[in-house]
Amino acid sequence: MWSRYLLLSLLTVFAPVAASADSLRFDPPVATGHTSVDAIFSSITGGCAVFAQDVTVAGTTVTLNVSLKPPPGGGCGANVAPYTSTFHLGVLGPGVYDVAATADTLPRAHAKLIVRDDSLTAAPFAVPSTGGEFHVLRRFDTTGLVVVLVDGHEATFVREESPGNVYLAPPHAPGTVDVSVASASTFRTAVAALTYFDRAAPPDPALFELILFPTSFVGPGPFGSHWLTENYIAPGIAPVRFRDAVPCYVSCGGDLLVTPAELINDQSTTGLALFALRGMTSDLMTGSRIYNFPSGVPQNGTEVHVVRESDFRDRGMSFLTVPVDHRARVMLRAWALTDTSATVLEPSPPPPTLLRFVPVPGMPYAFASLDLTSYFQHLPEGTGSASIYFPRALGQDQRMWGMISVTNNDTQQVTIVSSQ
Amino acid sequence: MTSSVQSLALTLLLLAPIATAETIRFDPPNVTAHHSVDAIVTGSWPNGCVPSVKSVSINGSTILLSLDARPPLGVFCIQLVSPYTRTFHLDVLPAGNYTVAAFADYGDSITALARTTLIVRDAETLNIEPYAVPVSGGGIVIGNSSFVSGDTLTIGGVTVPASTDVDGLLIANAPPHSPGAVDVVVTSQVCLVPCGLQMIATAALIYYDPAAADPAVFEPMLFPLSFQGPGAFGSQWTTESFIHASTPAAFFRDALPCAGCSNSIQSDAKQLTNDSNPWGHVLYAMRGTTGSLDLASRIRDTSRQGQTAGTEVPVVHGSDFRGQLRFLNVPVDSRYRVTLRLWAFSDSPFAVAVDSIPAQQIPLSLTSIPGSTMKFGSADVTALLTRASGNPTSLMVIPTASPLLSPPIWGMLSITNNDTQQVTIISPQ
Q: Is A395:A20 a contact under the CB 8 Å cutoff?
């Protein structure tokens, strides 16, 4: 296996593809006034060690600081070393916080944290800046007359729908606002209860959950193959709202998924991404299968894993028991939740095989692919199977997921090995 | 509630037998002193006016969850048993052992609904691996950069000699203890200032009953197939399942089912043995220790390995289990044989249905998996699929009881082409 040192050195050589050094994210990505939240700060040191960290909360400003110290007998050298510090922020009051990460008080990363008061509303907790429907929990009042205000502007009642009532939020500039429910006898305000988003802006991870269909292709392939992908999505008990209209053939309801739907193949080599509003996906069901069509022999197809955020891991990718078959072509496809990133194949004879991620325009992830056919051609076929790794490398958010497809050139049967 | 009623409630709730079927669970199940926790009460109410959350009171190590059971004024309550689930936010709790009791408050009386224990573990003062050991005791490694050789260690008040004692590291055997969490204390014997400095980790080591699978400590990990042998139409099947671990170590309740394996794995890769149990391998992994694991499983027909390298089988975690299953885009073809396999956390009966008018469904019953809290059932659904209205179709697994009270389930369909023996797996995603 390549040593971590060698890996870091390689990525230093390939500096243009290495990620920027600092990142700051939250777990969970958006909190409520009842849930604790961790801030996860990743950066590098010049050979120093992290020996202390502290959190300061002043109003809606949160400062995270790591203190570094030089190794025994010397100063902080040029050797780069990645580190990740997790700060427990506890349960914060509702609001929008500016969170700054510093190292020895020097600013390194900055992010916005929404802590939502969900006492008056239910999912969805975000609407487009053009306005949209949101859910107000039913409140009993002696008069039964209730007025709902969004940032002081009246929302329009739309319909009753368990567990409350649906209202239409008026247009508003992007940002997080308060929601108030007023009646003849009460006036209650939920701070930071609703966020307006800009559809033209990149998807905000605080508001949306990525659902990635790795293949979305129909068309010819090598050796006379012709491929068809079938991607499906279905809501559970409740409808699911998405950032954009769901790209499906029939039974589509715009950005609201109410019935099962087959998705349109967009021919993208980087897969098909949907962004569901957080808090609405616990019952969401998906399915994906790829077929070779014109083979003459009916094929059942091969299931493709539909990727959720929890599938992305920050310690690299491992592919165990990849079949070694010299009749097969072998392709790796991988995604990383970062702008740019890179990692190196293990084990590999020199020169090192670099897997380089390239940003996908408009998406909060990067994509990489690698033809591994020749790599596996060099392994003895009697090996049966082999395991390969793409370890975590230097840089910021290194969460990644990938899959290897092994396709028999004679039969076009596809075996997929996922990082799981 | 008045103080006298409160006092009565406390006595009743902590001592009285519980006659209802309500349950309390926690989210997350493995609670630490730096993260918030919710208590979730689930049960059945005798009428349609199900209770609402009234209050949470925390008094020392006792937590009372109060449900407002007074029916709303002027509302007719339908006389039908109604399932309900209510969530109480407990926020961040100090480390310790808690007794949690839920009760229904009718205003002038109370009824005890459920009672359980909650361990909030101090996971950061000392780094203890593993953080849980069986009641018979077991080896632990405690790391902390401030340790100095010669420090003394007590576990649950018992002084324990260290087998290895170097700067920054203590290795010891935790003595036997009854189930529950105990404090771990490291006392410095070096008389720098101050002399006798103690590092106290409250409720930092959990003792578990290995005959149970305490959800606060263990999460299930399922390898759905572990078959090797002949199949239909001359097929010869083998399953290849692997676990690879880097660092830190991953811990399990039982020894892993592989040659020379123990209940932990670190910096190693192991192939699991095939035992041909229809439910595969059900493992219980210690929560929070599996971050270093890579998993893989593949089934293939060795008699036709020139045609295909086989089919990947998903490895399932506890979080993959859900309240309902719907398999989308299931092909219907007379040349396919289709099997449904289902795993659940109770033996409630289920029905398997396809999209059709009129409704077409078959029953599915589950049986216990030995050594596990999980149940398993399977059914050949080939004939059922032919009664679907469309092709492809959807296949659903429906709890016969109320969905709200149904246990989480996971299942998969295997579709095998009788001519080519190609296997397609459809799993809930």
A: yes
